[in-house]
Every structure is written in C-alpha cells, then in structure tokens.
Amino acid sequence: MTTFNLYIGYRFVAHHEYPNIQLPIMSETNALKGKLALITGCSGGIGQASARSLARLGCSIAVHHSSSSSKPKADALVKELTELVIMIGPNGNIEDIPVEMFENIWRLNTGTSFRLAQLCIPHMEEQRWGRVIFTSSVAAGTGGVIGPHYASSKSALHGLVHWLSLRYAKSGITANAIAPALIEDTAMMSNPTPEIRAKIPIGRLGKPDEIASIVALCATNGYMTNKVIAADGGWTSGGF
C-alpha cells in the first residue's frame, strides 16, 4: 500500500536534494503560484489525483516515488503534467508560457503531423488513394481552456489540411481534421472542473467512441475533403 503525504511550501527545494523527485511546473490559476508541493507516494491513486488538482492551481509539484517499480507511474504522471495538462486557462497571461514550451507543443502537435504527411503522401500518390486525418481541437476555433501554445498549434493543422486537400485531391487523397472538445477517459480530461464541464451544452463530455466514428467516416468517404469537423457537444455554432 502506498503511503501518501503532502507538504506545501515556498519553492526552495532543489531537484538534486531528492533523487526520486521530479519537478514539473504548470499553471491554470494563481491560487498556489510560487508554492511547491512535495507529495510522497505520488504514484498512488490519491497522490496522482492530488498532484493534478494542485497543479491546476499553479503549484509546482515534486513527484516522489519510493521504488523502481513505481517509477513508471511517476514518469507517466510527470509527462502528463508537463506535456498534456499544462494550462494557463483562458484568463492566464501569455508571458506564463516559456518559448521553449511553445516550441515543444508546436513540434508535437504540428511538426509531427507535417512530417508524417511528408512521409506518407508519396506512397498514397502511387496508390492513387489515401486519407489524411488530423486530430485538431475545438481550441483552434475558440482559444480553448489550455492556453495559446496549444490552441495555435492545433489551428495550424487547419491550414495544412486546406493546402493538402487542394493539392492532392485529384490523386485520390483526402485531407480532413477532427476538432473534438472535452473527451472523457483521456489524460487531458482526467479530472475536469465543473466550470469546464459547463461549457458543453448537451451536459456531458464526449466519448472516445464518438470521435472514432468520425474517424471512420473520414476514412471511408472519398468525397469529403478539406473539412474541419467540430465534435464539441454544441459548444460552437459553426465551422472554423
């Protein structure tokens, strides 16, 4: 059984003082900005949930794990906090996003999509058949709930869709993007706040299978191309 303990103080703990601690930094609101939470047993269920909750309040998290067997869970939590749920929210400040973070998110969300298209499309042209389906986000059209780094990286995919679809349509290749909003059972939406849930008019989060059905539509329909399909429970009223 994992023992959970929590210590919150000012950010004075150096990384090297605790060999099993990793220090992601994230911020959604400023309630605990400038504070450090040392969570022992952070790889356990309560520890992980607490880390996510405090991090959304701007607190830096020291992720502690006590054994080699718990390190994979700790590593996964650090990755989630630093790459997937780094939020400053719609009311944050743009200066809170380091340039390095901005570039990393763009490389992850936009650069890899561009590179994969580069590698795959020549083969699709040879076959005279291909489907390019990008996963965008409603944030590309609304600004979203994470921050400008994420929203702009997803918006860039739309320009890529438009160019690819017009360039390669006559080769039997379609290009579309799906822009979901707030999908349950994903790392990004593992613990959404009531305020985030309230943004969805139908009153619930989307389901992964509901997005998968749109993927299947894009894969089987050869006439639909150059489209960004919003699947957001009625959050937006038109296309992007």
From TrEMBL:
Assigned keywords, A-Z: NADP
Signal peptide bounds: none
SUPFAM superfamilies given in the database record: NAD(P)-binding Rossmann-fold domains
Xref: PROSITE patterns: ADH_SHORT
InterPro entries: NAD(P)-bd_dom_sf, Sc_DH/Rdtase_CS, SDR, SDR_fam
EC number of the protein: 1.1.1.100
Domain of life where this protein originates: Eukaryota
Recorded catalytic activity of this chain's protein: a (3R)-hydroxyacyl-[ACP] + NADP(+) = a 3-oxoacyl-[ACP] + NADPH + H(+)
Classification via PANTHER family: 3-OXOACYL-(ACYL-CARRIER-PROTEIN) REDUCTASE
Family (UniProt): Belongs to the short-chain dehydrogenases/reductases (SDR) family.
Protein name: 3-oxoacyl-[acyl-carrier-protein] reductase
Naturally occurring in which organism (per UniProt): Somion occarium
